[in-house]
Specification:
Elements: E1 2-8, E2 20-27, H1 30-44, E3 48-51, E4 57-58, E5 63-70, E6 75-80, E7 84-90, H2 95-104, H3 122-126, E8 129-130, E9 133-134, E10 139-146, E11 151-156, H4 157-160, E12 177-187, H5 197-202, H6 213-227, E13 235-239, E14 245-247, H7 248-257, E15 264-267, E16 270-272, H8 275-281, E17 288-289, E18 292-294, E19 301-304, H9 310-328, E20 337-338
Parallel strand pairs: 2-5, 3-5, 4-20
Antiparallel strand pairs: 1-2, 6-7, 7-12, 8-9, 10-11, 10-12, 13-19, 14-16, 15-16, 17-18, 18-19
Length: 339
């Protein structure tokens, strides 16, 4: 266990914002996590934040309290049969390392989620999704620590209330439950998920039965890299806003005014409109204010071009929200956790 005071979080958030926390503690086991709460947090009634890789967070100021870095590692098979396998992964594992491992083992289910930054423990909190797949498609349960009782708990997929970029861990159980392990069920005899148009176009000349899991991962990585900046090269947290879902009537009004609008039906006479399309068509793609800007290849991504502060990035986000609201009468909701 590592403990530091007055610690800089610049290397622990993918925006690269230079803020500090009063106390930084890195834990590598459930026992260490319990010890932190028993001996420090609960007795002192301290504010705390559990951090994975900081890939979905924007710090706008120094953090007054404890930042707990989850570094619980390990991946193991807990059950399997001829058709499927259940794996248990530590919350501190790098998500894409887990995807790569599963692809190498020919375990189908998360290959479309390749190259998503962050840790395994953050995946169910956000119900990560991309290219036609979501974590809820494969999640069995999560294990972790109930903060109030300091007891281990297991929460099933149904109990986790997974929805579009949402879960019980962002709401009722926020700061009340800390994920230590994630359990997934994957298929040994899977088939390619080409529901995302970019993937179906990528493989348009390849018979589906000739596409293996490694090719899917390779395609997803190529598509992501063609659209999204590498956080190691250009500070960002991926998609800054959620894609808004609107009613049939609102969509039809927009379509009558903007014939080129992009939207996808999501059932119950509702449509999901890409936030990137709204931002780009509001004239904000590639805009730059100081060292904060929208990415030139994908307007949905806000980037730190060097020395931008969290407050400056937030100001740009608010400008985007205001402009989109004025033009399309649609509220953009941040996907990034703003602190």
């Amino acid at each position: 266990m590592i403990r530091e005071t007055g610690f800089s979080l610049k290397k622990y958030n993918t925006f690269g914002v230079d803020v500090k926390t009063d106390v930084f503690i890195e834990f590598t086991s459930l026992a260490e996590l319990k010890d932190i709460f028993e001996n420090e947090l609960l007795n002192k009634n301290q504010n705390f934040l559990v951090l994975g890789e900081g890939s979905n967070i924007l710090f706008t100021k120094n953090f007054n309290g404890y930042v707990l870095k989850n570094s619980i590692k390990g991946v193991k098979i807990i059950s399997e049969d001829k058709d499927s396998v259940e794996i248990k992964a530590g919350a501190g594992e790098h998500w894409d390392d887990l995807v790569n491992y599963c692809v190498e083992q020919n375990y189908w289910g998360i290959e479309n989620l390749s190259l998503i930054p962050g840790t395994v423990g953050a995946a169910p909190i956000q119900n990560i999704g991309a290219y036609g797949a979501e974590l809820k498609d494969v999640l069995v349960a999560v294990e972790g620590l109930s903060v109030a009782e300091l007891k281990e708990m297991r929460i099933s997929r149904e109990e986790a209330k997974l929805a579009y970029r949402n879960s019980i861990f962002k709401n009722e159980l926020k700061n009340k439950f800390i994920i230590t392990h994630v359990i997934l069920q994957l298929n040994k005899k899977g088939k390619p998920n080409l529901s995302y148009s970019g993937l179906s176009n990528y493989f348009k000349n390849t018979p589906v039965d000739k596409i293996d899991i490694g090719q899917i991962r390779k395609a997803v990585i190529e598509i992501r890299r063609s659209k999204l900046p590498d956080p190691a090269q250009l500070g960002n947290a991926g998609s800054f806003f959620k894609n808004p879902v609107v009613s049939d009537s609102i969509y039809n009004k927009l379509k009558s005014k903007y014939s080129n609008i992009v939207a996808f039906p999501v059932g119950d006479n509702r449509w999901k409109i890409p936030a990137g399309w709204l931002i780009e068509n509001a004239g904000l793609k590639g805009i730059k204010i100081g060292d904060a800007g929208t990415y030139e290849k994908q307007a949905l991504v806000i980037v730190n071009y060097g020395k931008s502060t969290g407050k400056e990035i937030l100001e740009l986000a608010k400008l985007i929200q205001k402009t989109v609201k004025e033009k399309f009468n649609i509220e953009l909701e941040p996907e990034v956790n703003i602190i």
